[in-house]
Amino acid sequence: MAKEKLNWEDEQVRHDYRHTASHIMAQAIKRLWPDTKLAIGPAIDNGFYYDLDSEHKFVEEDFLKIQKEMKKIVQANYPMERFELPREEAIKFMEEKEEPYKVELIQDLPEDAVISFYRQGEFVDLCAGPHMESTGKVKAFKLMSVAGAYWRGDSDRQMLQRIYATAFPTQEELDAYIQRMEEAKKRDHRKLGKEMDLFMLTDEGPGFPFFLPKGMIIRNELEKFWREEHVKRGYEEIKTPLILNEQLWRTSGHWDHYKDNMYFTKIDDGDYAIKPMNCPGSMLVYKRKMWSYRDFPMRCGELGQVHRHELSGALHGLMRVRTFTQDDAHIFMLPEQVNDEIKAVAQFCDDVYKMFGFEYHVELSTRPEDSMGTDEEWEMAENALRNAISEMGVPYVINEGDGAFYGPKLDFHLEDSIGRTWQCGTIQLDMQMPQRFDLTYVGSDGEKHRPIMIHRVIFGSIERFIGILTEHCAGKFPLWLAPVQVKLLTVTPEFGDYAYEVAKKCEEAGLRVEVDNRNEKIGFKIREARNARDSYIGVIGEREVGDKTLTVRSSKEGELGTMSVDDFVAKLVEEVKAKTM
RNA sequence: GCUACUGUGGCUUAAUGGUAAAGCACGCCACUCGUAAUGGCGGGAGUGUGGGUUCGAUUCCCACCAGUAGCUCCA
Q1: Domain edge (last residue) among A444, A472, A500
Q2: Burial degree of A241 (CB within 10 A; 0-12, 13-18, 19+)
Q3: What percent of chain A has pLDDT over 90?
Q4: Which helix or strand (DSSP H or E) is residue A153 part of?
Q5: Band of the pLDDT at A2, cuts 50, 70, 90?
Q6: Which residue lies nearest B48, CA-to-C1' measured?
Q7: Quick one: A3 exposed, middle or buried, by C-beta within 10 A (0-12, 13-18, 19+)?
Q8: Disulfide engineering: A529 pairs with which of A40, A138, A487, A505, CB 3.0-4.6 Å?
Q9: Is residue A404 part of a domain?
Q10: CA–CA dist A23, A554 (Å, integer)
Q11: In the predicted model, what is the mean pLDDT of chain A?
Q12: A364 is a domain residue
């Protein structure tokens, strides 16, 4: 048998391979549970899935059985035969096969669409293709999980069963992938957060994270950095209240468009809301006095804590919570300043993400169904975002209908350890709030005009950003953020005096240092310090006391040998300053 | 919120329709030790919460709560 080598780097090849595997899985399932109705079964980034409607509740114990049947189909090496049918015949064909979901799919195809099917043995599926030439081409696959998914992604429609699976050209590559996923799961920020004592979540406050002393160090350092960067870039900082009266939220449009996500409270006889966004507060700050065009662009930052009622099933560690701090800012400007300001913010995001070594992708989210404003306003706003990002030469994808209710946005997405993406930065162009709050400035003509405003965040939320960062660095934070920068370990407690002397020098240089002078074996102390992911471990024994040194181990670089205390401190101070990963 | 699954000391896990076991962690004692776990002893949970079935429930059933995966939604 001739062995053709698949070009696995080619996205189309991966797609065809996994899409074929998806048909094989569907065929196997139809053989084992003939009453199963098929919905859709596409290839996705790291594998494929099939959505099914069946009396049988699929469980992981079924996976081996299904895989066994899939192997038979692979061995039979059925050719994947494409054929086309006219619309009416195609519908009749699927009606006869009692596949109502397929019938609906065909009915919704455009009038002039070519309706194609693929046949493999006794199994036929509606499919645009393309596919591998035969089922025998698919060598290694594994069913991964089963979950619910709404038919056509519509939460008002039926919940189907989705089986996720993956396929690779060889068993070795499949095994390597599974191994990688298992390694990635060890970096889960929820696991590391617990192990490293950074934050916690309790039954008493679902979605309301507690930050613990070590997590607070990371958080405070990030905020300090954030403030420095904003001062450099011409921002001022404000703080607005968490609770404001209901009328404000009616004015802003949140009452009409965001009420379901808001928490409410009463003060005396008045109705109040807990802010889900910072903008209305910022509007009031703007309105406190009259502004001139000479004051623009006016960049007003706020580390603002917001509360949102997220659906219980959507909560996820620090990534998706019910209270979080947005590193928000509102920029008020003249029409001719819009382009530069958007570009400056996009550049700001890029600078910050690059510093942490993050890869990211950008999406332009357009007008959602539930929104306010005119088509012209939306078009103008969307164009402004599109132009700015295009001019920068940053690639982006369009995310249809995912904008905020008050305006379109450019979203910056980062990946977690297992490849899920989370929106962090966002730039939102808002033509609505300035109108609703009747914001004005005096132009050079002496007349009042309406300013243009953008909302923007860089981290997105401090919580989410810490979650992403924790996974990205597997708990080995860059030195400037590390809760414990130096851990000094004495070989025996008799060297404690010198250890505390070294610790004092570190502290004086501004480093976060701890001494482990317990009466334990050095191997044990090292093990604990490594498990805690302390950045630098300094071992102190007879030798070090003698020549005023310490023996250093870095969490990122391993053994660094023995160095003088001064050299050690200087090296770390330099690393903190450089903010390297 | 929806579908499925899970819920045992601080953590990780074990076990059973007959009254909860181990390791880590914690406390005490001994050991004074050189790069991933020294040894001994000790305290600590009635098994998410509330009901039900049963002579007896942690185990079976129901509801609720929380978590996990995905969907929907979203920073």
Answers
A1: A472
A2: exposed
A3: 91
A4: none
A5: very low
A6: A203
A7: exposed
A8: A487
A9: no
A10: 50
A11: 94
A12: no
Q: Is the separation of the CB atoms in A304 and A239 below 8 Å? A: yes
pTM: 0.95
Question: Whose structure tokens read 């064909």?
Answer: A93
Q: Is residue A374 part of a domain?
A: no
Nucleotide closest to A546 measured between CA and C1': B34
Amino acid whose CA is nearest the C1' of B68: A316
Mean pLDDT of A135-163: 94
Tens-place pLDDT, residues A466-497: 999 999 999 999 999 999 999 999 999 999 99
Instruction: Give the closest nucleotide to A490 (alpha carbon vs C1').
Output: B34
Nucleotide nearest to A420 (CA to C1'): B70
The nucleotides of chain B lying under 7 Å from a protein CB are 1-5, 11-12, 30-38, 65-75
Known catalytic residues of A are 279, 308, 326, 328, 330, 409, 455
Say if residue A40 is in the same domain as residue A125: yes
| A398, pLDDT greater than 50 | yes
Do A468 and A512 share a structural domain? Answer: no
pLDDT bracket for residue A1 (50, 70, 90): very low
The residues, ordered by sequence, that sit 6+ positions from A271 with a Cβ below 8 Å of its Cβ are A245, A246, A264
Q: What is the CATH number of the domain that holds A516?
A: 3.40.50.800
Closest residue (CA) to C1' of nucleotide B66 is: A203
Residue type, A164: Y
Domain count, chain A: 3
Q: In angstroms, how far is B74 C1' from A418 CA?
A: 19
d(CA A262, CA A467): 24
Q: Is residue A308's pLDDT more than 80? A: yes
Instruction: Report percent pLDDT > 70 for chain A.
Output: 99
We report the CATH number of the domain holding residue A172 as 3.30.980.10
Q: From A185, A203, A219, give the residue that closes a domain.
A: A185
Residue A563 CA distance to nucleotide B44 C1' (Å): 45
Tokens of A48: 């494929």
Specify the nucleotide whose C1' lies closest to residue A161 (CA).
B3
- A338 and A448 part of one domain: yes
From the CA of A321, how many Å to the C1' of B66? 14
In the numeric block, which tokens belong to residue A558? 């391993």
Domain encompassing residue A17: 11-185
Q: Tens digits of per-residue pLDDT, A495-515?
A: 999 999 999 999 999 999 999
pLDDT score of A3: 55
- In A517-571, which ranges are E strands? 536-540, 549-554, 558-564
